[in-house]
Design a protein that fits this description.
Blueprint: H1 3-9, H2 51-64, E1 68-72, H3 75-83, E2 91-95, H4 100-109, E3 116-120, H5 125-130, E4 136-142, H6 154-163, E5 167-171, E6 189-193, E7 207-211, H7 218-228, H8 234-245, H9 247-266, E8 271-275, H10 285-291, E9 298-303, H11 311-321, E10 326-327, E11 337-339, H12 341-345, E12 355-359, H13 365-377
Helix pairs in contact: 2-8, 9-13, 11-13
The structure holds pyridoxal-5'-phosphate (PLP).
Length: about 375
């Protein structure tokens, strides 16, 4: 079956007991044993597994084309679980512009777990190869990246990982399976913040991992989740499963809107630069064209400063004049958002001060372009 069909139907069997077409939401934390203590339906206690989470995990594996899906309480919990499977002494390569939360996780926690990491530019394959060490166990990529929308060549990095006997993970949050299928390109693990496009309505926090093969991580990841307890509530699993049903339609519209806005604003005199992999001038455009079906709903803009205003001031002023775009963090919801990333990342941020990150929603593109024009021209 094609992806659009899998998204609608996976994990969606009609409920046997009632005939309910929408999946039932099971909040029970505990499940009845048989007379000899056996578990006749496979369930015992909801932290280990539960029927709503099982439905979602079946769907996650199907839509990514992997053997095993895992749902976690957040994208961060999903990523932390992978790092917690590493043996002591392991070394990890991760992108120099990785999602801010993962940079903190790697910096603050990996040393406590007796592991080390090196940050590299994953768009530079020689740099990736050169940073490998005998103890490198994991290559952690993110594409498109946040907030500069840099592109990593997934097939090439997967080959480097294989050659080094390491696993490769991709944080594909910016590119849901409708437009990017990392497991088909040789990646071992795909990670999503389900809080973003999977949920799609800015109303649920969750994280997903899908393994291309059950081995070697299925067992140890199950144990990390059960024992450390980063499980999601069944209601959150239910909301994410519901989000998957409309993912293909939503993502198509997010992408076509973002491309229209990128093209319209790239020409604007108040815009210094647009970072969007769908534009021919983007340094990762050719790789993106090869490995993505469309270029996603995220883009960043650099606003031009002037004689009386720094780029940072100009960017903040534009964000303040937007009427339709809500000034808020996060992404992937139906509504368009704008955010000054350097402010949210704090003092150590290396993000350009004149950069605004946009999450393009499902509004009509002309309304979004008109809103941006009035905000740029109010300057
Ligand atoms: C939001 C995000 C995360 C973290 O996910 P949470 O669900 O907020 O824990 C990880 N990676 C990327 C690229 C993100 O945008």
């Amino acid at each position: 079956m094609r992806l659009e069909t899998l998204l609608v139907h996976s994990g969606g069997e009609t409920d046997e007991g009632t005939g309910a077409v929408a999946p039932p939401l099971h909040l029970s934390t505990t499940f009845e044993h048989g007379p000899a203590g056996e578990m006749p339906r496979g369930y015992q206690y909801a932290r280990t597994e539960n029927p709503t989470q099982d439905r979602l995990e079946t769907a996650l594996a199907a839509v990514e084309g992997g053997e095993r899906g895992f749902f976690f309480a957040s994208g961060m919990a999903a990523g932390a679980a992978v790092l917690q499977t590493l043996p002591r002494g392991s070394h990890v390569l991760f992108p120099d512009d990785a999602y801010h939360g993962f940079q903190e996780l790697i910096h603050d926690f990996l040393p406590r777990w007796d592991c080390s990491a090196t940050a590299v530019d994953f768009s530079d394959l020689d740099a990736v190869q050169g940073a490998l060490r005998p103890e490198t166990r994991l290559l952690w990529a993110e594409t498109p990246s946040n907030p500069l929308l840099k592109i990593t060549d997934l097939a090439a990095v997967a080959e480097i990982a294989r050659g080094a006997g390491a696993l490769m993970l991709v944080d594909s949050t910016f590119a849901p399976p409708v437009i990017q299928r990392p497991l088909e390109l040789g990646t071992d693990i795909v990670l999503h913040s389900a809080t973003k496009y999977f949920g799609g309505h800015s109303d649920v926090v969750g994280g997903a991992l899908v393994l291309r093969r059950r081995k070697p991580l299925e067992e140890v990841l199950t144990s990390v989740r059960t024992t450390l307890g980063a499980v999601a509530s069944p209601f959150n699993a239910w909301l994410v499963l519901r989000g998957l049903r409309s993912l293909a339609c939503r993502v198509e519209r997010h992408c076509s809107n973002a491309l229209a806005i990128a093209e319209a604003l790239a020409e604007h005199p108040a815009v210094e630069r647009v970072h969007y992999p769908g534009l021919a001038g983007h340094p990762g455009h050719l790789v993106a064209r090869r490995q993505m079906r469309a270029y996603g709903g995220m883009l960043s803009l650099r606003i031009r400063g002037g004689p009386s205003q720094s780029g940072r001031e100009a960017a903040l002023a534009v964000a303040g004049r937007l009427k339709l775009f809500v000034n808020a963090t996060s992404l992937g919801g139906v509504e368009s958002l704008v955010e000054h990333r350097a402010s949210i990342e704090g003092a150590e941020s290396t993000t350009p001060q004149n950069l605004l990150r946009l999450s393009i929603g499902l509004e009509h593109p002309d309304d979004l372009i008109a809103d941006f024009r009035q905000a740029l021209e109010g300057a």
